[in-house]
Amino acid sequence: MDFVQSMKRDGIATLTLGGGKVNAINGAVVDEMREQLKSLEHDGEVKSIILTGAGKFFSFGFDVPEFLSFDKAQFSQFLTGFTDLYTYLFTYPKPVVAALNGHTIAGGCMLALACDYRVMVTGKARISLNELSFGASVFAGITEMLRFTVGSANAAKVLYSGSMYSAEEAKGIGLIDEVIAEQDLMGAACKMASTLGSKYPPAFSGIKSLLRKTIAEDMMRREKESIREFVDIWYSEHTWANLKNIKIV
């Protein structure tokens, strides 16, 4: 496992995104995270999950430079895997807490949205679905998870503006649940993961399913077409020119 590190302690499994300075998301990240989550789902000792990032970033989103070499079929295959991953995470039977340790942008924000609870560090870190700012779209699943999290009016504000929200601003619209100092992040995440993990598992997973299953079903019905539209826009002359200027260190 090169991109997603796993650690278990006191009934909590912590998955840490890594690989490069900004923890960019590519096919290997998606595959490793899905494999880790599948294994932890059936681990009776694990009651809850924390998802966080290594270093100063949670994730800056897709590994754009890598995808510039992909043709439409290859990129569509990656997007199918990525959207399947966040849908799985959205309906995951165990509690999942996102510990947002730094910038949480685009694809990184999408993964955070799929979690049950989001705690984010105060300071310079920003969270955003900024796709429109460089001429890209989002997916059906993202619009539904965003509406579920912040309501329709704020979802439109987030997507239309592409704004970079501080932790405090994000909490104000419901995009995150808790703002915390950097040194206290994992303590706060562990506290919430422990609280949610202490609930009777069949009852928790049942209630989570009642809240999210019909949304996920609608996401899956619409996702294939939204991926097709996303790819067409991604490879348009306007957006492609902007993508070439995105650098991942």
Write a brief caption for the model.
The protein is of the alpha/beta class and 249 residues long.
- Radius of gyration from the CA trace? 17 Å
Secondary-structure element pattern, one letter each = EEHEEHHEEHEEHHHEHHH
Total of domains: 1
Percentage of β-strand residues: 15-25%
The separation of the N and C termini measures: 21 Å
Order of strands side by side in the largest beta sheet?
1-2-3-5-7-9
- Look at the structure and name the CATH superfamily: 2-enoyl-CoA Hydratase, Chain A, domain 1
Indicate the CATH topology: 2-enoyl-CoA Hydratase, Chain A, domain 1
What structural class do helix, strand and pairing data support?
Answer: alpha/beta
Helix amount, in percent?
40-55%
Largest sheet: 6 strands, mixed
Give the mean pLDDT: 96
The backbone outline, from C-alpha atoms, is: globular
What's the architecture, going by CATH?
Alpha-Beta Complex
Which CATH class is shown?
Alpha Beta
How many β-strand runs?
9
Q: Would you identify the regions where 5 or more consecutive residues have pLDDT less than 50?
A: none
Number of separate helices: 10
